């Protein structure tokens, strides 16, 4: 009789242990769910003049993975030279039907460079942000906007009107921040980092205009904790 009771007890204990292990496996799988990342923008998002692994969305994805937050390589919809209306057109043509766990938006420098009316940016940025929120399954806390860097400090920009560029981009970024606040979306200001390139040529890509991989690394150091917070 004692042996029988001991056997039943052992079976019960093993059964409970098995259920506990299964639960732990499920919890582990859920915690390791791979997040999907969509990055929308222009040359600064596609990483003009730098290797693919040095693009800031790719660096960000890598850093999140190293921190234990599984994130797939970002899907990037961005091309050098795009304005807000061209990004809108590309998004429509991409016919995105899936949703993403995190969505970024960095756009507007080419509106300023081409001298487009400021009202175009105001209208189209708001529309792009609405699209980004939809791609994030309507979760505003999974969307973030990155400010436009100041290219006026680069060798290319110094040949233009650097003071005018800085003033106009500050205006663009102030509006972007305001729209983000209205929609409760995270706005991350990297413009002050971009201006360090004026005294540090290692922060500029070989083309004399775009950020180097080192500059993007500096951006990610600022962006990473904000995005980690959003995903947690």
Describe this structure in words.
By secondary structure, the protein is of the alpha/beta class. The protein is 56% helix and 9% strand. The chain contains 10 helices and 5 strands. The chain has helices at 2-31, 43-46, 56-66, 84-94, 109-114, 118-135, 155-158, 162-183, 191-194, 213-231, and strands at residues 37-41, 75-78, 102-106, 143-146, 186-188. It has a 5-stranded parallel beta sheet with strand order 2-1-3-4-5, with helices on both faces. The protein is globular. The N and C termini lie far apart (53 Å).
Main-sheet strand order equals 2-1-3-4-5
Count the strands?
5
Q: Tell me about the biggest sheet? A: 5 strands, parallel
**Terminal Cα span:** 53 Å
DSSP strand (E) fraction? 5-15%
Strand and helix order: HEHHEHEHHEHHEHH
The helical percent reads 55-70%
What's the Cα radius of gyration? 23 Å
Q: What sort of overall outline do the alpha carbons produce when their principal axes are compared?
A: globular
